Amino acid sequence: MTKRIVVALGGNAILTDDPSAAAQQQAIQQTAQQLINFLAAGDVQLVLTHGNGPQVGNLVLQQLQGSSVKNPAMPLDTVGAMTQGEIGLWLADALNYEISIRGLSQRVATVLTRTVVDEADPAFRQPTKPIGPFYTVDELPAIKQQYPDWQFVADAGRGFRRVVPSPKPVSIMEAAEIQALVQDGVTLIAGGGGGVPVIEKEGHVTGIEAVIDKDFTAAKLAELVDADELLILTAVRYVAKDFNQPSQTMIKRISVTEMQQLVDAGQFPAGSMKPKVEAAISFVRNTGRPAVITSLDNVRAYLADGDGTVIVPD
Ligand SMILES: Nc1ncnc2c1ncn2[C@@H]1O[C@H](COP(=O)(O)OP(=O)(O)O)[C@@H](O)[C@H]1O
Ligand SMILES: NC(=O)OP(=O)(O)O
After folding, report:
1. Element (H or E) spanning 13, and its range?
2. How far is CA 156 from CA 89, 174, 241, 245, 264, in A?
3. Where is the signal peptide (predicted)?
4. Taking the model in full, what pTM does it have?
């Protein structure tokens, strides 16, 4: 029986040190070389979601730097849609290339996806999602002066980044279309950058300034397409308890209740591992199916014997 897996691709799947188009396409080609293992296995169907934090922040800056009355900067939701096109294009090209050189026959499509959020979500009052480039302590005053309304946070010792609101996904507007394509066996790229954030009001759908966490959108998508598994691919093979401390241990298999206890004990940082763990917990709780967090370069081992951090129902 075909196994349906929703995969959330972390930042390292797209962007390494060099943010040029060529370097990002090269990183995505390497990602596709890992993902093709799923399609070559023959009995796996994929729905891929990806992040857009660096890209959406960089594109906002480009928009502002070149803007004029005749050529105005676009709002954040629209720029988010642009990054879905940008990364969706690169990922579809890369997958199609791997499919063709291996003589496989899967079809790939990118779906521009809108994610409904709640206007009353407290996230709109407390921005947490880091986007765009890192700034050093020395660079920070100048960028703050240029954009006085922006908020910045220190990001895990790597510098400072702008943060924007990141509301939770409520539903996905293209759910039925995504379902139909998945049902038809298409390898889908959907919910990129967490989906374009929209609110529904008096029959109208309007974009709203935010960037949704792709791990939460992946969990929502996984529920909607009746996935057998949610797979979150990041830079680490296992989620760790006591991360980076002498007492660190790797979590290989854990029940959803035990994982929630680790979240409640403050084991996972908000800007990085916590949303992944919370998204995984939400999928396992809502579906009774497993979620796995592991690294992109561990895909073969994961396929062979399920290696990674596996979160299972109680
Ligand atoms: N408890 C933990 N276990 C493993 N990794 C952790 C933990 N806490 C924080 N991390 C860090 O979180 C990173 C994943 O978050 P992030 O880089 O934001 O994800 P993404 O892959 O979506 O870009 C890991 O590569 C690791 O450096
Ligand atoms: N939208 C989103 O979650 O992007 P990153 O994974 O790049 O932060």
Report:
1. none
2. 30, 35, 17, 15, 20
3. none
4. 0.96
The answer to whether the complex's ipTM is over 0.95 is yes
Q: Break the chain into its structural domains and give their ranges.
A: 255-297+305-313
Query: Which candidate in 52, 58, 129, 193 is catalytic?
Result: 129
Q: In which element (H, E) is residue 244 found?
A: none
Task: Quickly count helices (H) and strands (E) in the chain.
Answer: 9, 17
Active site residue 168: no
Residues with CB under 6 A from ligand 1: 10-12, 51, 234-236, 239-240, 243, 268-269, 272-273
CA of 181 to the centre of ligand 1 (A): 32
192 included as an active-site residue = no
227 φ, ψ (degrees, to nearest 5): -70, 150
Among the bound ligands, name the one nearest to the CA of residue 294. 1
Q: What confidence tier does 187 reach under pLDDT thresholds 50, 70, 90?
A: very high
- Tell me the HSE value of 203 on the side-chain side, using a 13 A CA sphere: 0
Coil, helix or strand at residue 219: helix
In this structure, how many other beta carbons lie within 10 angstroms of the beta carbon of residue 313? Answer: 13
The alpha carbons of the chain give a radius of gyration, in whole angstroms, of: 19
Q: Among this protein's residues, is 129 annotated catalytic?
A: yes
